[in-house]
Amino acid sequence: MTCSTTMAAPRTATPTAAPTTGAAGGRAVHPVHVHVHVRLRDGGSVLLRPLVGGEVAVLETVFEGLSTRSRRQRFLVPMPRLPSGHRRALADVDGQRHVAWVALVDGVPVGICRYVTTAPDAAELAFEVVDAQQGRGIASALVDAVTTVARSRGITWIEASVESGNLASEAVLARVGIELFLSDGLLEGRGELRPAPSRSLVNQRAVLALAGQSASSSSTAAATSSS
Fold first, then answer.
1. Nearest to residue 110, comparing CAs of 39, 48, 159?
2. Which parts of the sequence belong to the N-acetyltransferase domain (predicted)?
């Protein structure tokens, strides 16, 4: 499940300490200190956390788990490998203008959702989940987390582009208020970001606490590097 941009699980409890080892066939990524735990509809679970600026290994692990079709859906062009320019742009998160969260299963990154602001009150949304983990509700959990952060930052309008026929991503976007229309072979849309559902897939308080912690860390790092 992927949704591009121009650049049902029950609610769970609390942030949880991070594992440091990965599942077979994947790479566990460090640093991981605190997560938001989400119980998935199939009884499994996933851990969500903010992506840290410069975490290229996470991007590469998720990209490697996408099929040729999923890569095309995400980037809207054939993408046999992740170009260095794309890698730099996707890793350039700051917790404010560019916010991204990663989902992990057994310590291995399996999905990413992000928004990039286009105006003080508007942002573009994009997400991808590796093929082996699609259909479990991970994309919905990631989108719930990222849009929870977006609302807290004053984002009221959200937009996205999707390859025609990507029904799963269309459904995820409809949940947050994006109505899509066909334009030059792509589905594009913009909508007013809906209020968080009463039964959000994530613990919104835990998400906001972790997002605030991440933003503070990013600001401190930026101040240190410029001093």
1. 48
2. 46-197
Q: Which residues of 41-69 are buried (b: 16+ CB within 10 A; e: fewer)?
A: eeeebbbbbbbbbebeebbbbbbebbeee
The 10 Å Cβ neighbour count of residue 189 is 18
pLDDT > 70 fraction of the chain, expressed in percent and rounded: 80
**Nearest CA to 169 among 117, 111, 126?**
126
HEC string of 66-95?
CCHHHHHHHHCCCCCCCCHHHHHHHHCCCC
Q: 12-39: per-residue pLDDT in tens?
A: 334 444 443 444 345 555 444 589 999 9
Q: Count how many residues are written for the chain.
A: 227
Least confident stretch, 27-41, 53-67, 176-190: 27-41
